[in-house]
Amino acid sequence: MFRSLARISSSTLRGLHTSTVSCNTKPIGPKTPLPQFKSQAVVDGDFKTVSNADYTGKWLLFFFYPLDFTFVCPTEIIAFSDRAKEFRALGCEVVACSCDSHFSHLAWTEKDRNEGGLGEMKIPLLSDFNKSIARSFGVLDEASGLSYRGLFLSDPKGEIRHVTVNDLPVGRSVDEALRVLKAFQFVEKHGEVCPADWKEDGATIKPSIKGSKEYFNKANK
Length: 221
Known about the structure:
Elements: H1 2-5, H2 10-14, E1 20-21, E2 37-43, E3 46-51, E4 59-64, H3 72-82, H4 84-89, E5 92-98, H5 102-109, E6 125-127, H6 132-137, E7 140-141, E8 146-147, E9 149-154, E10 160-166, H7 174-190, H8 209-219
Parallel strand pairs: 4-5, 5-6
Antiparallel strand pairs: 1-2, 2-3, 2-6, 4-9, 7-8, 9-10
């Protein structure tokens, strides 16, 4: 913690209030643009400004968690961080965000994992200290000032393709996030659609009345 506080300067203190977002009047959902964001983050153990512009032309998995130094949150963040390589191999970056300060994020990374800390992170931890980002994404619980567990997958054009929002007590699945990413990338590349519980190398469906019969005939034998 003292190492974290030693890094405070007047410019980084001002950063507590400088997260910015675009004014969004549309409901957030598939085929809508990912809201613009720009704020301080912990990246590789230091402070850095992170924004949408850093991910232009890439898939982006952007997820919110409620609060630093809690219980379910470290299990999710560590799980996504430890598998960041798998996402990057698919051309997808991962960013985690909460309404804590970047100083709190840094202090949490300096706490051992066996004590509920995060340890070394392979993904940015974005600060939404003024709650404007969570509000623009529609995941802020105004009563508590915390964000719900929202997860947003956007494509290289910056359009949202997938959204999930969990209430606070239940964490998310990295396997499912990877499955959905691979499914959307398959659709983009091949033009066929993915049925329920589709997994990589699984059967897909030609999106036409005639073409779909091939899948249905095999699936319903």
